[in-house]
Amino acid sequence: MNKLLTAGVLIAAFAGRPALAATPENFSVRSAADLVEICRAVPNDNISSAAAGFCQGYVVGVYRTLEEIQEAKPKARLFCLDQHQRPPTRTEAINAYVAWVDARAAEMSKPPMESIADYLAATYPCSNARSSATPTSHQGAQ
Predict the structure, then answer these.
(1) How far apart are CA 140 and CA 66, in angstroms?
(2) Which of 42, 52, 106, 132 is the most buried (most CB within 10 A)?
(3) For residues 98-116, average pLDDT
């Protein structure tokens, strides 16, 4: 019973945890944890405007870089968007990435580009069986 109560308290404590304020140190983006803190900066955060622009620019830059690598090496594709589905907006994609990293503690210590590549590969896998999935185009993450 004690173990159940303890587990319940821990789940409740972390499930609804408020976003921590991004700090200037997070802008060095040494890890996925830094990027996640920047991307989840809340509106009352004193650096939220800078954080929002930085987050979107960083994530889109990484996405475009990975996309170019895939175009140069089509047999080594990491991710494929389903062309029959609406691609996520920037905000949707970033929020999904943050939630994905939050659910995987091991991702927090990885370099941000590696973590984003892991997210894209897990979320948008390429498969010969998925005929509607094609290499990414410049439509996604806009």
Answers:
(1) 12
(2) 52
(3) 96
> What per-residue confidence (pLDDT) applies to 48?
81
10 domain residue, yes or no = no
Evaluate the CA torsion angle 13, 32, 94, 114 in order and state its sign: negative
CB contact set of 81 (below 8 Å; sequence gap of 6+): 87, 124, 133, 134, 136, 137, 139, 140
pTM, two decimals, is 0.73
With residue 82 as reference, give the H or E element that holds it. Answer: strand 80-82
Position 128 scores a pLDDT of: 53
How many independent structural domains does the chain possess?
1
* Residue 57 falls inside a structural domain: yes
- Does 4 reside within a domain? no
Residue type, 54: F
Band of pLDDT at residue 65, cut at 50, 70 and 90:
very high
Alpha carbon distance 16, 88 (integer Å):
25
CB of 121 closer than 8 Å to CB of 66: no
